[in-house]
């Protein structure tokens, strides 16, 4: 008989075997004993609390009931067969129903016997029933599982359940693992870390996550395991960052020269906000170290990121380097180019633009000037990444609206110089701190958390469908004042055709109920050719059309200062961050701006909360925090593809404190022992070595 260890294939665990092992692998990615031991319950039932049948309520989650089986029978034909039993206590009776494994249940369930039953009660035909409840004999045996006060509940799948691997089945296997193998569990965190935060050992944590002694022990186990989870993510991120800094030199922008000074003293038409000053200083300090900068600048729409970018580029120019700025769309690139070119007029520096629609002749000329170092600042789209674009001496790359560019594209820009340029990534999508620390944990983050003075907050109102005439009245009034208006319709992914119908019906209704001769409408939606889209947008930008009706294709960052009203139809269908982004299209000029959220008369609780939040605050960071609480990290824009968010226990919405602790601990460790050579950090070195082998392997396969 071979001696099993935690690395043994799950197949060999008593009660598993080849078929279930295969299911474990396919359904849950569990291959070894260790994997299963690290498959945690997702919640617990209080086994000290028994519900009486007359206390049941359809709002209750899982409940535990003690009762006697008073009848059981198999009813129905063939594939509709089911086993129905009645469970009775002194207050009433409920039905227990099984649709699968009828034979097994029939053999194991005895009429007249008392059982402990677990399950979610639902109302069916006017009375309570529980389908596929879990059953336990009564009284409970005096074993570890028998003595549990908190019953673990594991996620399972339909396929696993067919092979009796429901929550109870998994619990049985966990019992076995704990009894036979818990002693083999090795500590994964350095002792000094455990001591610092008074955390329990890995062994104790695993024991208590599966079979908690009491609520306090469960909390300690959760805290320890969450910490560990976040700690190792931070270790990887910060280690990557540190290695990059050790390995890649960066251009040292030693001096602030004429260009920055002239711009700041003589050209800049306004006073910088304190936040802008702070961020520029952070960039200045970061770029003079001789280490490549990788910095993310987060700032709400309108917080003035462009001028921060421009001054950073001028700093590069002052130090003899070229700079470029990349935007996700042609319209945005053009806007940046125009605003930058108008700010640095009088020949302070030379600025050029390169996009997909630059002609061959323009390109040839531009390539030449770029290589000769005659262009100081190049603004453009993806076209900048092409290999043909060669700089004489690129020192800084600014990437606007980061989430549209992939890591691969970022890397391409790096290779545009022997010493990689400094990278400044700008995003107008505020993300909560915990997310930023996890998603961009290998970047330094600067935050512009202040709007320029005198900016009037956008006045946001929520109107119900029944108040539509008021909305039309308001539009009329604003158009009469010479303002322009956006009306946005949500995109319903399932049917673009329906979206369009919806949008067209909306325009019809508007023309009918709002008959003014002197307004023109631009219509922009995903289904129309690019050229038409550009044409319609251009008319709106030039003020020839007063109203722009669009699906959500309205470009991020499009700047039409005279547009001061944003109307969002079916606003309850949008997520918070999207609503905030859309609202950011207005409030760019001197006029008071408005955002009107139109919704149906019936709203879900969450939909209502979203709209209330929008009405209450203009602060993007506050909104992103609420969004995170409402939807969880997976749905926040730009995070979908990121594997770092597959957290097992930790929750970025609620575990901010643990994340802080984990991150600062890693920072301290890496600072004191950069190569992790100290014996008491050897666990960490081993972890990283294993990971990097794993990653290399992933890339090959
Ligand atoms: P965003 O952060 O959304 O990219 P922009 O850089 O486009 O914002 O700035 C929005 C507007 O605010 C621009 O018209 C810009 O000139 C102006 N602006 C930027 N900073 C200031 C400031 N400190 N004071 C006054 N206006 C400013
Ligand atoms: Mg911008």
From TrEMBL:
Signal peptide: none annotated. One of its GO terms (biological process) is DNA repair. PROSITE patterns: HELICASE_ATP_BIND_1, HELICASE_CTER. GO terms for molecular function: 3'-5' DNA helicase activity; ATP binding; ATP hydrolysis activity; DNA binding. It comes from the Bacteria. Residues 286-448 form the Helicase ATP-binding domain. It catalyses: Couples ATP hydrolysis with the unwinding of duplex DNA by translocating in the 3'-5' direction; ATP + H2O = ADP + phosphate + H(+). Residues 474-634 form the Helicase C-terminal domain. InterPro entries: ATP-dep_DNA_helicase_RecG (IPR004609), DEAD/DEAH_box_helicase_dom (IPR011545), Helicase_ATP-bd (IPR014001), Helicase_C-like (IPR001650), NA-bd_OB-fold (IPR012340), P-loop_NTPase (IPR027417), RecG/Mfd (IPR047112), RecG_dom3_C (IPR045562). Its EC number is 5.6.2.4. Pfam families: DEAD, Helicase_C, RecG_dom3_C, RecG_wedge. This is ATP-dependent DNA helicase RecG. It comes from Pedobacter frigoris.
